[in-house]
Every structure is written in C-alpha cells, then in structure tokens.
Structures
1.
Amino acid sequence: MTQRTNTGFQPHTAVVGLQWGDEGKGKIVDVLTAEHDVIVRYNGGANAGHTVEVAGERYALHLIPSGILNPGKRNVIGNGVVVDPEKLLEEIDRLRSRGVTVEGNLQVSDRAHVVMPYHKEQDAALEEFLAGVANNDKGSLAIGTTRRGIGPAYADKINRSTAIRMGDLLDASYLTDRLRVICRLRTAELKALGVHAPPLDADALAVRYAALGERLRPHITDTVYALHDAIADGKSLLFEGANACLLDIDHGTYPFVTSSNCSTLGIPPGTGVPGNHIGRILGIMKAYSSRVGAGPFPTELLNETGNLIRERGREYGTTTGRPRRTGWLDLVAVKYSAMVCGATGIACTLFDVLAGFDRLKICTKYRLADGSVTDRFLPDARTLAAVTPIYTTFDGWTEELRSVTDRKELPVNAEKYLAFVEEFLGIPIEMVGVGPDRRQTLVGV
Ligand code: GDP
Ligand code: IMO
Ligand code: MG
C-alpha cells in the first residue's frame, strides 16, 4: 500500500491580507507567480480589487487570480469563491482586449456559487434599508458593502435550497426549474425590503444565465481534482487571499466584515486542498492602515496626516472608487491576523508612502474604556470601537524610496521602522514594496 505523507517540505504558498484589505496582495501574487505554477483564489468574489502594474500598464483584477498576466501559468477560481458570471466574462474580455491570454489557463470550479442579479439587488436594498434606519443614535447598521451581492450569495449557499452553482449553469432545464422557485421567493423578499420592481422573470433569467454558462463552459471543471492532480505532478500552488483577515466572517471585526473566511483558514474549504500542503504563508501588511466601508478602526487619522497618506498611497477603492479611511499602522491587529493566518513571513507594502513625515506612529497596545491596557486584539466591533491606541513614535525620513533596490540602501530611520515591526511580530519581513510596479519590490530581505 502506498503511504502518502505531508510532513516534508511543502512548496505551496499562501498570500493573505493581514489588515482590512487592499494591502497590495495582487502585486505580491504577481511577483510570486514567477516561482509557482498554479494560482488559486479560495474566497470572496468581485468585491475584491487586486491591482497589478507592469511597465506602466495598470490591471485591476476582481475574480481572476493575479497570476493571469504571467504566460504559462494556470489560474484557478476555487469552489469557495462566489462568481458573478457577467463580471467574470467582462474581466476575461477586458484582459483579452489588452492582449492577455485567457483560455485553458483559467479554470473555474463547478461548485463555486453564482452571484445572481437579485443578490446584488438584495445587497443594495439591505444597505439602503439599514442606512435609513437610526440605531439608537449610534449611527446606522449599514456595513458599507461593495454591493456586489457577496453576502446574499453566500447566504444562499448556506441555505442550500436557494443556491445556484457554476455547474448548474450548464444544465438549462435544471436551472429553469430551480429559478422558478427561487424567483418567487426573491420577489417577495425584495418587496419587503422596499424594492417595488416587477416580479423576477425566472424563465428569462434562466435563458440569460444558461447562455453565460455556455460561454464559460470551457473553463468550468472539478477544480478539486485539478488541484490535487497538479500537486501529484509536482506543481507548486500559490493561494491568493481576497479581502483580508480582519474582514473574515469568523475572525474579523464582526459584523463589519465580509461573508467568507478570508484568512488562510478559508483555504481548505475553499479549494479542497488541506492546510498541511502549505509551507509558506506570506502575510501582506501595508506600512500603515486603511479601511473602506464602516466599522471600528482604532488608529484612524481624521486629519491632514490621514489625507496625506490617502493621497500619497492613492487610497481610493479599486472596486468601488470610494476614498479609503487611513491611519497609523496597528501592530496589535496585525499580530492577531498573523497568528490566525499562521504567517511565516511578512511583505510590508506601500512603504514608500511613509517618506516625508516628521514622525511616524505604530500602535502597540490598546487602552480599554475601564483604563486597563491590553496587547490583545478585540475583534468584536463594539469592544474594538471603545479602545484607544497606545503608540510608539518613530522619527521619519525624507528620502523617497521608489528607486531603492535593496533593503540595505534604506534610510536609517526607515530600516528602524521595519526592524521594529519584525521584532514586535517575531516574523521576518521577506518583501518590501516601494512602489506599485512589480519591479518596485525588495525581495529576500
Ligand atoms: P489588494 O486588494 O490587496 O490587491 O490591493 P489593491 O490593489 O486594492 O490596493 C493596493 C494599491 O497600492 C494599488 O493601487 C497598487 O497598485 C498599489 N501598490 C501596491 N504595492 C505598492 C507599493 O509598494 N507602493 C505603492 N506606492 N503602491 C503600491
Ligand atoms: P481586496 O481583496 C477592502 C469590505 C467592504 C465592506 C465589507 C463588506 O481588494 O482587499 P462585501 O461587499 O464584501 O459584503 O463588503 O468588506 N471589503 C473590502 N475592503 N478590500 C477588499 O478586497 C474588500 N472586500 C470587502 O468595503 O466594508
Ligand atoms: Mg483591493
């Protein structure tokens, strides 16, 4: 009998955001694609916006893994992703029109759940409803979602009987039967949320989505076996997290989170690949903090410094264009995420943005409402909203970092900032981002 063991060196890598998203995961995945064969998305959907810049060309990827710009690599959308077929086809067409090959190098799980138009309507209607209802003077309960239908699509996945999977799009008669039931329910639900549109037309929707399915048919497959076959063939996998650990449905700042397990804990259920295959987990940490949408953010800077960080870092949403909230680096939060994700290394991104500040601050502890001090993160949104950050202050540097090619060339104060982060987290910084282009990445540091 052949015995399989997973105890040796595992060549597979995960990239995961350690803050509230937009840490520069897309760029790091693009860089790491060179040393991997298969790039795999395991969670989220078109709420993600991953930017890759190559030779002055900027690509925004939402559903397709950020490895797609590298010829000869396989890109997989795993079963844990919720796929909006219209958005996926738009993305494929956009990439092809720019000369990027998207053919057999893109596989989509037949078990990935479909984001339907009514999911997007439900998402928007619920947000509008919540925004319009006062919550005892505590502001609204709206989450500030991307309105891409993510929450409602995952809710249907859990409900089971109201869900559609990518494989279902390939069977028009099955799809029609299901949609006839779902649309009756959805029409009533949308009406209750104040959407007074004509009833959903199940048959028309079935025709439209079966046609989208036909266009995607060459890509739809059993990705669980595809990934395990690749592993058996000695290929190396790169898992690309979307959203980020602090937006994780279980481990993030609930309820101001997204609806999937964005931490590395989402990889096994979202791909069918067990965690013991992953030897390297690179946590992506922006050199400061940002957040888009509602929810607690202890180190937020609602002042000129925050505005300056926003402008220098071009902190406007890749998916929605919304200005991102900005603040100092919160290492209490990052250390928690690194623990939950099992980070073995850190990529510190957007480090160039911090040049030119007299003083920089890093949060290393929280003071609670009762005056006590803690170095532990408090993911519950209400508890976190009540903490005051305690900072360590650093002298800044004036030199721009964008043309630096080696960590040893960094200004002394910039190096002190990085060394402090490494010491505090107890995890090495393996990469430093000094600009948006894939070449502006210091590696092996
Ligand atoms: P993701 O969602 O984690 O992939 O990040 P986004 O693409 O949403 O946002 C990161 C932004 O920062 C994008 O505009 C990137 O082009 C840009 N970026 C990534 N790394 C760096 C870096 O090291 N320096 C600078 N200045 N920009 C970067
Ligand atoms: P990437 O992969 C930043 C946030 C939304 C909102 C909350 C819930 O680009 O880092 P949703 O539409 O998912 O129901 O919204 O989560 N959010 C993100 N913020 N980057 C992302 O992805 C995000 N994905 C979701 O702004 O606050
Ligand atoms: Mg993003």
Note: Residues 21-22, 49-50, 318 surround magnesium ion (ligand 3) (CB under 6 Å).
2.
Amino acid sequence: MKIVVTGGAGYIGSHTIIDILERTDHEVVSIDNFSNSNEDTFDRIEEITGKRVKNYNIDLTAYKTLKEEFFEKENDIDGIIHFAALKAVGESVEKPVKYYQNNLNGLINLLKCVQKFDVPSFIFSSSCTVYGNVKVQPVTEDTPTQTPESPYGYTKLVGEKILSDFSKTKAAFHALSLRYFNPVGAHMSGLNGELPKGRPNNLVPVVTQSASGWIDDLCVHGTDYETRDGTPIRDYIHVSDIAHAHVLALEYLQSGKAAANYDVFNLGSGTGVTVLEVIQAFEEVSEIKLNYTVGPRRDGDVEIIYANNQKAKDLLHWEINHSIEDAMRSAWKWQQYLNEVKSGDKVHHG
Ligand code: UD1
C-alpha cells in the first residue's frame, strides 16, 4: 500500500510512520507544515527505522497547493491517515476561528482531493472528547455523542460528521474515525516522543518536563472530583499501541471486511487511571519525587472517561502491548534524551 500521513512530524503521526516502516512493507509519504512540530522528527524516524520519509511542507488549508504540489505528483494513493490538526483545548476557546479554519478546512480540502484523485481509504483522528461528560462508563461507540465543551472538541465532532456524510456519496470509498482516549508515552527506544512547541498542556509532558526542571509549576487541577482520590479519571494509552491501530485500520478497510462505508472505533486501554496515579507511576519508574501543587479544576475537564475497546479488539484485531508503566518509562527516557540534546551532550540533527 501507499499511505499518506498528514501531520507525519507530529506526536501520533510520527509513531504511526515508525510502526508502518518497522512492521510492514507499505510506502509512506508525509504532509506536514511543522506548525506544532519540527523537521528533526524525520531524522529520528530514520534513526529508529533506517528509512527516510519524504515530507511535503504544505498547509492543508491551501487547496490549490495541496492539489497541485501533492496530489498531482503523488499517484496511486491507497489510503490517507489524517492527523494534522490543532489540538490545544484551552487555545481553541480563545481562538475558535483559528481552530475551525484549520481543522475543518484541512479535512474538507483533503476530501476534495480524495474525490478528485479517487483515494479509496481514509482514517480520521478523532477524540473521546466527542462523548462529553458521560455518567455511564466505560463508553462504547454507541454511547451518544454530546456537544463538546471546546471549539477543538467541536472540530472533531463536526469532522466525523463531514466524513460520515462524504462516505455516503462514494460507493468505493471507506473511512473510519478513531476516537483516541489519552495517548501517552514514547517509542520504547526513547528516541521519539511528544514535544509540543511552547509549554505543554497535557499531563504527561508536564510531568516529565517538571521532573527535568524545564518547568516548575506542575499543578494538579482539582482534587474534589467524586473519584477514588479526588482527581479526574482518564484512559491513558501508549502512543505505539495507538499508532499500530492505524495500520490495522487501513488493512481492515483494504481487506473489504468493513460492513459499512463509515465506522468509528474507540482506542483506549479500557482502564481508568487518576491524575495522582499517573504521578505515582511516574515517580516509581523514574525514582524521582515530583513537587506539585493542587489548584482549582481546569475549565472543560470531565470527571471520568474511559473506553470500552472491544470493537477495535474484535474487528481490527487490535492488541494492547504496553502498560502505563511502559508509557512512563518511555516518556522519561525520551525526556532524558531531550535533556542531553539541550545540554549539548548529543548532536541535535537539523
Ligand atoms: C483532552 C481531551 C482529548 C484531547 C486532548 C488534546 C477530553 C476529555 N479530552 O485530554 O480529547 O485529545 O485534550 O490535548 O476533553 N492535568 C493536571 N495538570 C496538568 C495537566 C493535566 O492535573 O498540568 C490533568 C487534567 O485536569 C486531566 C488529566 O490531567 O484531568 C489529563 O489532562 P490532559 O493530559 O490535558 O488530557 P485531557 O484533558 O484528558
């Protein structure tokens, strides 16, 4: 297969490229404009896999450039995995137009090209945020979606709807939305991981960066939730397990086993873990005691969400191969690699 990965230099995109190159013979081409990532990622992918991936630095919101500079040059595409999007929940509340413009126009332009160039398969990065605040846990794919709290979440819900509607118009086209829970960790080599530009917002990079002294304000956002230790429960899933699900998803579509033109899958571990348990797991694997403060609840946070992942296990034959400890160990290894790069002990490519 020839697979296009948008956002190939990003966190989940780069791990998916590594999975494709390590475990299959499929060809990969990336489109990434490095808006929240770095060209170095392709050096790291090469270091891990021994293979160089071609990247096109194209903004997906520029339809003419996308069509002429990418789709007219790269022929016979079997599938697109579409990661490229903005994902900071807080920023999306402050800059909603930026999020709608980027996330929705990017998807729409890709689908226009899918139509024009007859791409048969499409995988969309969605999120458990589409379920909103749900009483009954774990959530299944049949749990009704709700209006998300943030413009970011709304772009995922609307993105799913656009893809679902588009799929009905083309008999030979099949698409899936994969609803990620909380992707964490790094490649087990510690050579590739999450590195957002600026201060991270997500819990695990905040934890690893504060353990290294890059930031000094690790704050637990709320300890008054109705959970076993008062902090919110999430479903943390290793990024390499998430990555492999994309390969299985494309193979599932290609095999013709998909009953419908469009479907959705939860990608979570199935286990709910509290914020304090994440901190404890990190402290155990790193043998570092974290200094943290307790602050008020963060706007838009839900109390509890974790996945029922049976559908992905049954239909995609997805298996989860990494634990939360693996996630913490690899995230810490990656942070230590970054520390060496920062201190000049390691040559920084690019
Ligand atoms: C959210 C979205 C998810 C989205 C992701 C993108 C929901 C339910 N989830 O994940 O769909 O893809 O953002 O960024 O909307 N925390 C702290 N201190 C910190 C950082 C986080 O206590 O410094 C806590 C949060 O309050 C939360 C947990 O850690 O309870 C996880 O937070 P985070 O890693 O940001 O992910 P979500 O908000 O769950």
Note: The chain has one domain: 2-343.
